[in-house]
Amino acid sequence: MSTYRRYSRLTDGVYLAKDPVKYNGVSTPIEMREELGIRGLVPSAYIPLDLDVERCMEQLRLKEKAIDKYVYIQSIQDVNERLYYAILVKHTAEVMPIVYTPTVGEACENFSSIYRGTLRGMYFSLKDRGKIRTLLDNWAARHVSTIVVTDGERILGLGDLGVNGMGIPIGKLALYTACAGIHPAHVLPVHLDAGTNTESHLQDPYYLGLKQTRERGPAYDALVAEFFQACQDKFGQNVLIQFEDFGNRNAFRLLHEWQDKACTFNDDIQGTASVALAGLVASCKLTGINLGDHTFLFAGAGEAGTGIADLIAFAVSMESNIPIEEARKKIFLVDSKGLVTDARLDELQHHKLKYAHKVDRECKSLMEAIDYIHPTGLIGVSAIPNMFNQEVCEKMAALNKHPIIFALSNPTSKAECTAKEAYEWTNGTCVFSSGSPFPPVTLSDGRTFVPGQGNNAYIFPGVGLGVLAAGSTRISDYDMFLAAETLADCVTSEELDKGGLYPPLSKIRDVSAKIATALALHAHETGVATLTKPDDMEQYVKSLMYDPFADPYE
Length: 554
Fold this sequence. Notes:
- The chain contains 25 helices and 14 strands.
- By secondary structure, it is an alpha/beta fold.
């Protein structure tokens, strides 16, 4: 240690330059550089932030491979977060597919190889049990409002990536800041390392996680429990802890375990459900069919599928004033063995049981289920590419004037069909949405459609901002329903006419502010808010939003 100190001296300027949240690089005004101690540490020119953004975008666009774009833009975040978020805010639609889906999937698959040693997030393994609260004191920020945690077992549609899944919490929190203005100094990505069952990772000499198969016993639950309790002790009862990409066997169980003990939600279950419900609510204006009059068939019955089904049933029960059990009767699931029915009760996972309806026919394939059920809406959450083939889409068009076809699986390579396929195979009659972005589609007759992307980023950032504004200690199913309705109300008739079920990403910060306002007001109504209610909630919400273009020296 003495040798290290002899050759290392962190002056005030060097210390600042190593803090990516505070460091502004060449966008630091000349007159401020001497005061901050960075004069001589940066080039002489002053480059306004707007111009620096465009300089970086020029470099980004020169790169051909998506993974190279990802590494480049993340290297900016490593050094200068103000510049990074200025890029995301100004060029949201262009950059979001790089920092999140679909490119983040490739980044996760290569996480151990492209890891740059950046201090971004915390890693707690089974070997850290009993020490997590102490280890949290190693984190730089004393105040954290928003945490995204994964155990890496089910990353997008890519399977068990272990520690390589850390790219997802990092990407999600970047969107909390870019889309809702959660301050970048107050977010914390976390990986809980319980091992991995992917043999290629266990054999990879560069793999950065525990080299052991996944722990499935009490030690796993103890690790999760210790983590939650430590975070609440360190950061308070209103710290938001978002579950991300946990496997099916744990996702529902852990959500139910912690939903009434902490301010938490699972974005794969509840966030996906909320954004899908928003698209369905908006689509009612195109189909002319009320939500409660639809019959939905899900291709895929995992956490995303049953999460969406649960929120649809909740919404129908609320809007139609009927028991939720009645609302579920028009929602059907197809899994790897065919239609989920009461004849399969002994083999079904618990989250499918509510949709195991009594039917008089066995349907072993998606197509057989479509022929039998005659759904008005087909929702893909299977992570099986090409599952919505030409036969499926043409059948949906034959059954419905405006069939709903949602291909929600991520990343793009796992989508059940493309936007082009859906529009062409239904002759432009379908109402389409996807999980990853697709370009506009022009049919042979000249009609052009702008497909909607059911991106969870329309929901979870606003939820996080609402929690921050109210100091909420809990997040309920009704909150996710409220977020969906608020998002659907943001879609204009002009956007719907073009096929879009969601607002353009250029409006996402306004959308997040509206969702946050609605949820914060609801928190006060239900008694889970811990902060004083402001006279003008929307104005207060907007005042909380981090703006990278604001002058940091005022």
